[in-house]
Amino acid sequence: MLAYRNFIKRIIQEKDAQYQAEIEHQKELTSENIKGQEDERKRIAITVHDDIGNRLNILSLWLNNLNAENQGSSKKIITSQITELIDSTRNISHSLYPVNLEKLGLALYLQELVTNLSYRINVSLYIDSSYERKDIFTEVQIYRVIQEFTSNVIKHSTASEVSIYIKKNPKHTTVILTDNGQSFDYETANKGMGLKNIESRISSVKGFHKWKNKIGKGSRIIFNIPN
Q: What is the residue range of the signal peptide feature (predicted)?
């Protein structure tokens, strides 16, 4: 009888320990998400102040100094600044929320991402013809994971190529992201915001993932999302 009580007590203690560990994990994720949001707000604020703000000041100066003698050259500069302002504003808008994703769907929106990345890295995109649109929240999370992965590759890897593969299976949709860079050892790597954001977004849509990296040969993440 005593042995049984001790057994039950040990089981309860183990369950309590698991519960506390899960609470701490959730607290850590929440803290990291808040920090990530603040970092993103800071980045946007700096972009607005340093980029858009400065361009508007330049435009103001050129408009104030506009006269008949320099009208031709000033017009070219003003037009150039306005074009760059439009691009900067669009980039900020996309970083806040992929506005056109809801209208275009994930497949077309990813093609736009690939086009935007093409001047920095070679990206191959394959989306199985059987892929069916998901709810907007799920598609946003898939897009953000792909966006985060490609951004990390460009920032931290020596990769020249990235592959994006999406296929619908009977029970789930599989996404495979691969690069040919230097890679990293997942077990010993410092789990920065990039990796945590990727894994947090996958978890938010009840998905599961696995990293398959080869040092010096590239990184690969495979994640599945329920249909």
A: none
Interacting residues of 97 by C-beta distance below 8 A, sequence separation 6+: 140
Answer for the pair 111, 119: CB distance below 8 angstroms, yes or no.
no
**Count of other CB atoms within 10 angstroms of residue 198:** 23
Residue 35: CB partners within 8 Å, gap ≥ 6?
Answer: 193
Tally of domains in the chain: 2
pLDDT digits (tens, 9 = 90+) for 124-155: 999 998 888 888 889 989 999 999 899 888 88
pLDDT confidence tier of residue 15, bands split at 50, 70 and 90: confident
The residue among 170 and 11 whose pLDDT is bigger is: 170
Q: Could you give the CA distance from residue 187 to residue 210 in angstroms, rounded to a whole number? A: 12
Pull the structure tokens for residue 135: 């709810």
* CATH code where residue 107 lies: 3.30.565.10
